[in-house]
Amino acid sequence: MVPIPAEYMPDFWNQVSSESPLVELTCLLPNGIIILLSENYNATLSEIKEDLWEKASRFPLFGKLHDMSVYIFKIINSMAEEEELIDESRRINDIRPIGGVLIITECRGNSTDNSINVAIGHLIGKGLQDFDALNSTEINDFRFKMRKVGDEIFKQRHKGTWLDKLLHQFPPRVAKIDKVCNQFSRESMQIRIYCKSEYDIPESTKEILQHRFDFEVDCSSTPNKLLEMVLSKRATVLNIKNQKILEYVLKICGRDEYLLGYYPLLQFQYIQDCLSYSERPSFLIVHVDRIPVVNSIYANIDPLESRKSRTSYNLSNTLRKKKNMKSSWDINDSYAITLCTASRLNCDSKKQTELGIQVGLFHGGKPLCQPLKTDERTVNESNEISFDVSLEFDIQICNMTRNAKLCFAIYEVNKYSKGTKPKKMKETRESQINPIAWANTSVFDFKGQLRTGAMTLYLWTYAEDIMSDDVLHPLGTVVSNPNTEYATALTLVFKSYTNDQPVIYPSVEEVMEYANIVEENEHKCIVCSTGIGRNKDLCLKLYYLDNVDDLHDQDRNNIWAHRRLWMHRNPDLFPRLLMCLDWNKREEFSQVAVLVRHLPKLSIEKALELLDYAYADQDVRSFAVRCLMDMSDEDLLLYLLQLVQAIKHEMYLESDLVNFLIQRALTNQRIGHFLFWHLRSEMQVQSVSVRFGLILEAYCRGSQENIPDFQKQLKFVEKLKSLSDIVSKRKDKEKARAAVKEYLSTCGEIDNLRSPLDPGIRCNSIKVERCKVMDSKMKPLWIVYESSDKEFVDDDIYIIFKNGDDLRQDMLTLQMIKIMDKLWRSEGLDLRMNPYNCISLEHRVGMIEVVLNAETIANIQKEKSFTPTASFKKGPILSWLKDYNRTENSLKQAIQEFTLSCAGYCVATYVLGIADRHSDNIMVKRTGQLFHIDFGHILGHFKEKFGIKRERVPFVLTHDFVYVINKGQKTQQGPVLEFKIFQDYCERAFMVLRKHGNLILSLFSMMISTGLPELSSEKDLQYLKETLVLSKTDAEALAHFRAKFDEALTNSWKTSLNWASHNIAKNNKA
């Protein structure tokens, strides 16, 4: 007879006492694993769960489990009934489960509505079940925490007022009043107000016909004051009574945007734009009940807080857990790994190829010690190599940073004859090697635990566009290649330094305690009053130095020793100071945790710099995000492109930067819109598809009311992609146009959608008869929509849809022009820039805003002169402007617009190295504004033919441009006054950009990870350093720019010659 287990005996729990306090518990996990736990009989359920999860992490299938708070305990009680244990502060001895069996089960109601999961999966382009299938603890932990963030923001929004909900869904564009706008602050402006019955009180039986009122108001007035004036006049004219100001708002005609808040009218971006373009602002008076504020779908779903178990974690739990762990700072052993096998190697085994592996330890892009290499070995017939070699690095565990990473590269060694080195070959002292695959991984996992045991890494193919001279690729992702079936695999073992005891990185409190002790000892050795004069010289040198590595070691040590003094006098030098410390010495890198807690908040410019890949320390990146917390919504949108790219430099899924972006996106629909598309446009990139997909899931789940809008936009993109494919097969122009009209006439489901280019614009219905195929190579689609406020706005909505062109570089260039314009305006310089909207939606798919009433220089020259030498003639542009500006004042204004905008684009194209400038990608509006389009080549990547650069001038300043600037005056007696003023505009614009040169460099540096062919390494930033001449004094820099200006003017005939060649070639093709 089989004996009954002791725990099933009736007196089992009676035998447990203080003398015999341990009880054996059998825990049944939902992933199918059974774990035996030995616990104190007074342990609470929360303590048991914590120990259970810690032990389960060492068992298989742990990745199947979510965060522990998603689960509750279930037992069979003494009445032989199932019982769920919600209160986890209860002690196991009070519960006494039969047999000591604890069943861990998911909280009821935790599974979300399947239709929402399907909708989110379709929106992000990846099924949510794919995340589950990865069996990753880090992914599960991130999803749980982000869901919690979404729930918290939802609760705040749900409790908010109607106005709070309106501000979230229709956020007003509020901008700072810069020096340019400030000139209007004491002036009045003409405003037009429309009112119509269908926008008024729903219950009203009174028919309010469409009326229009004109007002003159001060720019300093508020929306409420304007609304009072409108309601008062309307009540008088239409005999309406009992109007309440709180029941009405002013809607911008043609936009899903309202004048909300207590800002001066001049602070609204729409008002600033109208004043800038001398247009009359127009509004529609709308009753609040007519505004379609969408209630969140969340309202029908139980908040996460109400479902999860009531846990009572406290300090004793943490202390109890730490007793079972060892600090990495207590281990003085050298860091070591064992390389086992490399398989599925992409090489020809018949050629007796020799392969080796190089491994390095890095913090950001900085090596922590010398990299190590295996000996080269021959690939066997199975395309495998067995190494079984241990590598011990010259760095102790205690001196490794929290964000240290291991970088691997498998390389091929071949002997080539002189002059036959392949493109990817890297020079070494011993030989030439050809890197074929690489991978990176973190030394500590996302919980701060030192990796130990076996691991298989799936490597990435070494791409041709990796321009680094090094074999290792520390800038690359720490994500393993998801194509596990075909990718090269590397098996390795991380050395274990304890007997089954986890090794963790010390807490922030422990790091700061150690840092304070080190600093006290340093002060005993440093006399702070010495070397101050020398420090002033070093300060200037450090500020303008391109590379801190160029500093002498003694200077760097001196700078670091006086760090407190530096931070007190000039906090903006903090990014440079971080370059002076040794990241392989904890005595130095531990100080960072102290410094960031005593620094004042830095400017946006400096905070963005700290989010570059070079700054890997978590404390530094968290500090940078804290500096951005007070950033306005408009500033956040301006820099969102770089902030999304900065996510790629985060070591782990969860970070302060990701939390910051998700929270701001969930509180402002406009930010959420662009975050959604910036992330989704890169979902096809395997190295970021999981990370970006998880962020998209978090955003969509927390903003479910916006899912229908995104679904419609996605349908719009899919339909136009299909149409583009159809059109590309029609070689005949007329047949292509017929195909466009036929296809769009059946696409009613893409009516009434928010424009992906600008969520503030609602497109009503497609004007099929006005849509067409454009003539360029990729056959872009010209799409025309009717405005949602067509009764009050005459302008239609024009969109260019491109399929086959990578618009990311255009998007970056246009963003930089917007930033330049903002910098100039902050200095009182309005150069009438026209950075139109552009967005990348998918791989080689995107949209561009159409600038109306504008023509290319080529077409203007062709219109005014049919000869091939039209590009050499002075008069066409001025003559064309006269056609559309027939009065003396309007022509004078158009020439002024041309002069200002030409100055702005001359400087912008010079600094950014915008190439391939010809007469078909420079345009002029009828109002005189000049602007550039098509930014396929930047940073000085000028086109060449037969090894000779086609463009040999710093920027475009042709004789016909000068003729307009001079108002058609002859210049035999030297430059006229108008041209001197133009040159002064250029010089002022250049000096402003140079003043903010580090910001421009930082923004481009943050985009290196994008994968743009012309911005793939730090070498590509060299062009910006050369144009901005940051190492020179202001006087030297101005002299440098004047020389470039003279060069552009003197050699303008070369530009005209290029344009003539371009026009002839284009006509021949036609």
UniProtKB/TrEMBL annotation:
Domain (PI3K-RBD): residue spans on this chain: 190-287
Tagged with keyword Transferase: yes
Superkingdom classification of source: Eukaryota
Lineage: Eukaryota, Metazoa, Ecdysozoa, Arthropoda, Hexapoda
Domain PIK helical, first and last residues per copy: 525-702
An individual GO BP term: cell migration
GO MF annotation: an example: ATP binding
Family: Belongs to the PI3/PI4-kinase family.
Family matches, as InterPro entries: ARM-type_fold, C2_domain_sf, Kinase-like_dom_sf, PI3/4_kinase, PI3/4_kinase_cat_dom, PI3/4_kinase_cat_sf, PI3/4_kinase_CS, PI3K-type_C2_dom
Residue ranges of domain C2 PI3K-type in the record: 331-495
Gene responsible for this protein: LOC115888540
Entry EC no(s): 2.7.1.137
Domain annotation PI3K-ABD: ranges: 19-108
Name of the protein this chain belongs to: phosphatidylinositol 3-kinase
Cellular component GO terms held in the UniProt record: cytoplasm; phosphatidylinositol 3-kinase complex; plasma membrane
